[in-house]
Specification:
With 318 residues, the protein is of the alpha/beta class. It folds into two domains: 2-90 and 171-313, P-loop containing nucleotide triphosphate hydrolases (Rossmann fold, 3-Layer(aba) Sandwich); 106-169, no CATH class. It has ten helices and twelve strands. Bound molecules: adenosine-5'-triphosphate (ATP) and magnesium ion.
């Protein structure tokens, strides 16, 4: 069953130079119990997608167009109050760099307890305690550390506590924004495996945001590759990994090291991204693309459906 279906979503930020189109006409869907990875370079709009889904865009951010259908209801149309009921109960988010946001003067278990009470004040004390213990078990923090303050936790434990807070109200969708980026690779790998196990056990859907395609490929069933506010390729993990279509996806994969030594030649990337206030007329990847033709500069690229589940925004690649 489709849990989330995003249609033609556009999000803009008002700036002194005009509206910055951070997310420009993106569409995707996510099935119940599945995970979708959003991958792309810094500034391509990944966090903006997450914040739009949570109804937590900053003051100058606005959904200009589109629908966010969650379990059939369009979240864009909901009142603030109705959206508050959805947030954390149905859709939760692990914010980018959140582990530094734990309150230093409160014990970790109190903060998790508060997350539950804030949304379900009627929860009896005994039940509350059981739930906090269950969450500690779920993210594999030993119960004897429940009384600790955040500064007594390692980075990995803090991040696990943040994951526990996101799970506190039993959401159906979790948006995880770079949940392991600040951690060393071993802890990162442990936490990624735990997220997979939790997702399976609780049958939740996960929208996983990362700049690292290797991480996304490890955790996610499907992959959306973003460049300059657009999804440029969407497909199952196998499709995107084994038969990447878009030159930007190929570029991302070319810098991905595989253990079997089967590493493609790295491709050159200038790192220059287009102006999102006045985006280029044609393909946004034009200036970086080794395969671009002159037509790419002015012709708006269209999605090419290469399989029922795999599509890419490119006019050149057959
Ligand atoms: N509040 C804001 N006001 C104006 N512009 C913003 C605001 N927040 C984000 N942006 C711009 O919107 C674009 C998308 O930003 P976003 O944070 O969604 O990118 P991201 O893909 O999450 O990047 P990163 O990988 O660095 O976290 C960027 O150009 C960014 O500078
Ligand atoms: Mg971000």
């Amino acid at each position: 069953m489709t849990l989330l279906s995003v249609e033609n979503l556009c999000v803009g930020y008002q700036t002194k130079n005009g509206v910055l189109k951070a997310v420009d006409n993106i569409s995707f869907h996510l099935e119940e119990g599945r995970s979708l990875g959003f991958v792309g370079e810094s500034g391509c709009g990944k966090t903006t997608v997450g914040m739009a889904l949570m109804g937590l865009l900053p003051e100058n951010g606005k959904i200009a167009q589109g629908r966010i259908l969650f379990d059939g209801r369009d979240l864009v149309q909901l009142s603030d109050e109705a959206m508050r009921a959805v947030r954390w109960n149905d859709i939760a988010m692990i914010f980018q760099a959140a582990m530094n946001a734990l309150n230093p003067v409160h014990r970790v278990q109190e903060q998790i307890r508060e997350a539950i009470v804030a949304h379900h004040p009627e929860t009896p004390q005994g039940e509350l305690q059981r739930r906090v213990e269950m969450l500690f078990d779920l993210v594999e923090i030993p119960r004897d550390r429940m009384q600790d303050f955040p500064h007594q936790f390692s980075g990995g434990m803090k991040q696990r506590a943040i994951i526990a807070m996101a799970l506190a109200c039993d959401p159906r969708l979790v948006i995880a924004d770079e949940p392991t980026t600040a951690l060393d690779v071993i802890v990162q790998d442990q936490i990624l495996q735990e997220i997979k196990i939790i997702q399976d056990q609780m049958n939740i859907s996960v929208l996983f945001i990362s700049h690292d395609i290797a991480v996304v490929a490890d955790v996610c069933h499907d992959i959306a590759v973003m460049f300059a506010g657009q999804i440029v390729e969407f497909g199952s993990r196998e499709e995107v990994f084994e038969t990447p279509i878009h030159p930007y996806t190929r570029l991302l994969l070319s810098s991905y090291l595989t253990l079997d030594g089967d590493k493609p030649e790295p491709l050159a990337f200038s790192g220059k991204t287009p102006n999102l206030i006045r985006p280029p007329l044609g393909c946004r990847f034009y200036e970086q693309c080794s395969q671009a033709t002159t037509a790419c500069e002015n012709n708006v690229p269209e999605f090419r459906q290469v399989s029922p589940t795999h599509r890419a925004l490119c006019n050149v690649i057959p």
